[in-house]
């Protein structure tokens, strides 16, 4: 087909909006935008360099109207093929939108354009004594826009959260070209949570409001070597279980260390893995005390040596070794496939062993890097993509590694995104119900499927995993509730979701529907102490939840609130809940159950509907159970920074006990309504809200 | 050498001598295809690539260039790479940022050679032929040009395209900025210096001064300052009586001429070594010394020449690294006052090409103390890049503006540089954008700052090149 046709006659329009000099259709540009740091390839039909943020919306509107696929692209460093134009169309090159609009240290907010390079922002913030926590290894080149698209992490996210935890608000251009201002403080479903990590499939961020923090007064770093990865992980597990939250807890295995030239460390022949531990805080004495504790944990786990870095220079060498490990592996062979699985933390040694077995089965060499503190592992498999047979083995091994992570209760991507390269694996992680829900969400925002099409959601279920023979064990109350929902859906009966009635009051009468009592959902599904997570049914009173946890020496780092867990999530009575919530089991109005998120503390596989459900006021689905982060009893209060959510001001979002829902100030926007249709097309749940 | 089949460029490679038979990379000797395939597309080079940072365009980024050359070799990009190749500054910042040290500049040059095929650009070829075969005539023509300028005919010379005809377009642009072009070349002056002659005593000497074309034909004061410094700090030495290093032919013309230049210099070095022992070859243009350090790469297919080239390369030193920072002391007030606020621009082929960063800084810090200030983005190319300012004037100018803005941002008065191309380019930019500052060659500045106080008030003829021009 002629390229002109594939652009649907938009070429002139693109030039008019973007400027003649900013529209490229030459072969060199087409070729140079047909790759990124992954291995997928596809040719765009045109590349448009956007030199002003306010040009994005008219460009998108034009393309959408003409039915031309498009996607945003920045540094092109993503590892999952996220910026490959699978259906051709137009690449919107936003790398020139690189202005930092403002840095407000009093409010702790920076407003930036998407093309700002992560490290550049850090440098500017450092001048004011601040930092922005997400620090992906590629921060020297990767951009904030890309970080938002992929929900990027980095070593510091153990303590300070991933990108989604640090985005306070976004200005988003939707696939249809409308501009939305969204904030985590808005009442109603959490839209920034949904957009962050959506890989350009739901919209394009043109401004981001980011949370920035004062640089800690003290940082102490230690490096510790072990004979094996297993031993290192034992030390990690003990550290996490103690409630100490290091600013970073990174592990590298021997292959990575050798590639990175030992990282300036003296390695003995026995060294099989190295752990980098970094603590930060205001009181040096406290840090030293904590480091001493960690040293004891390491010794108990069989550490070979433990050394605190003497000065900043030594520390920088160490970090250069860690952050340079991936590129250093690039010296050993032309290509590196960086896998990105995440598992519940206690499963990390098992996962590492599995990965090693798979690699040896496929006769591959790989360095293993771990964000050990949050169960995220990166096998860096080296190969030569020109060797087709070897490349095939790498792909297969990659898939087996992902399956292994899923089997261990983990996920297929901790921080790199799904893009095109892990699309297939989504079939193994999710059931049809969840994938269909993702599709409906995508369709709600992008009915013509033009924004970065064919990403994230599998295009075929040919490789779908056979469903487990036995469905997950469910309490009688939950089963009954599902049956009831099915019945009501079949008869078109509307429901009014009711817990303890603490927060969400509703108008009485016919319009509000029949009560759906969820207060029977009050069992403890699982307390996973070693992972510092727990799963509760949604109707459990927070008071009960607290006492159940206290009995096993744990707590949730949040204010003491009344009501139920489900109610807290549905109403966002405390905004920080969005950062504590890891997974949800959600019953859709027709009784279909979707399992969203999981038990791993990092998870970017698929749309983050878990966050979206925060503030959904029961109108999107009935929360059956929720998995939340915990901390050891007594530590949540003493170190408020220990969990990202705890940093959020508690008073920001309105508390509205016994008030009418209107009093929450929530007036559904067009986007909320469209999403409502994706979840509840017949408006069966809490119908007055979207009435 | 590669186990993979490629087409296109490899036909050109069959002609061998018009190309580098293989590249000497950090990871060992590699075929061009293997070297370029080592780029894993991670993108870590993007933020240091000046052309990418100014345009945001992938095809004119380091990664884009490597990929386009690779695709060309794989038959997927016939003819699409020309803009990418032409816009490369060859600054080498990307290779320094790259963990696999993919030699983008060499790859780009191979790409250019393949694109040009067996008929490289005429002017540079003629020019190097002229320099190789008729150095006397070349010198005569240059002087004619200089005379034309002195006699008030610069515009006419410009109009007639005199410099352009010689392939020295940048000189045309630099006419007004450059110090008056000399009528006596540096090589002629140095040949007349008895101290620099090997004489008959055959005593070991510490150094042999290699006069790069810039100091030789244009900035004779730079060469004189370098020689004075070498005498002052390293003891006795000789003049190399060199040919051009061959970089011009390597970058813009016929690589066979580059080899011819290299062979001549290697032979000369061997003769010197025979008589005087292992001298260091010290040159004062970073582009040239960096290139001479890679002479071996020119001869990977010539077993006889390869080790000789390697031995030559091992003896090469850049003047900015050869002058020992440890020998410096705080400079006298008078000279410092004259120099004002001093900063240092890392010439690309010094920092990226040879990894020289600390020596000049250490020396300047000792000499100037608080008057030395770091230049933001000091290792960003100035856009001079040999003939780049001539072949890509627009891009070159954008890059230059960024450099002058950085110089202005620290309110520098004197910018020390290591390559003569930077000297031309930055001075041209400063004159327009920030006239209170001036670029000088590092050796000129250091020579001035280390001059014994007694000499200060009675400048000798050789030291007449002052840091600042006399006030008009």
Top keywords for this entry?
heterodimer, A: 691 residues, alpha+beta, Uridine Diphospho-n-acetylenolpyruvylglucosamine Reductase, domain 2, Uridine Diphospho-n-acetylenolpyruvylglucosamine Reductase, domain 3, Alpha-Beta Plaits, 4 domains, eight-stranded antiparallel beta sheet, five-stranded antiparallel beta sheet, 33% helix, globular, B: 472 residues, alpha/beta, Fumarate Reductase Iron-sulfur Protein, Chain B, domain 2, Rossmann fold, 3 domains, four-stranded parallel beta sheet, 29 helices, 10 strands, disordered C terminus
Description:
The complex is a heterodimer of chains A (691) and B (472). Chain A is α+β, with helices and mostly antiparallel strands and 691 residues long. Chain A has 4 domains: 3-93, Uridine Diphospho-n-acetylenolpyruvylglucosamine Reductase, domain 2; 100-214, Uridine Diphospho-n-acetylenolpyruvylglucosamine Reductase, domain 3 (2-Layer Sandwich); 218-325, 2-Layer Sandwich (Alpha-Beta Plaits), CATH 3.30.70; 476-679, Uridine Diphospho-n-acetylenolpyruvylglucosamine Reductase, domain 3 (2-Layer Sandwich), CATH 3.30.465.10. Chain A is built from 25 helices and 30 strands. In chain A, strands 12, 13, 14, 15, 16, 17, 18 and 19 form an 8-stranded antiparallel beta sheet that branches. In chain A, helix 2 runs antiparallel to helix 4 (56-66) and helix 10 (229-242) packs antiparallel against helix 15 (348-361). Chain B has 472 residues and is α/β, with parallel strands linked by helices. Chain B folds into 3 domains: 9-116, Alpha-helical ferredoxin (Fumarate Reductase Iron-sulfur Protein, Chain B, domain 2), CATH 1.10.1060; 173-322, no CATH class; 325-463, 3-Layer(aba) Sandwich (Rossmann fold), CATH 3.40.50. Chain B contains 29 helices and 10 strands. In chain B, helix 17 (255-276) crosses helix 20 (305-315). Chain B is globular and about 65 Å long. Chain B starts with 8 loop residues before the first helix and ends in a 16-residue tail after the last helix. Classes of the chains: A alpha+beta (691), B alpha/beta (472).
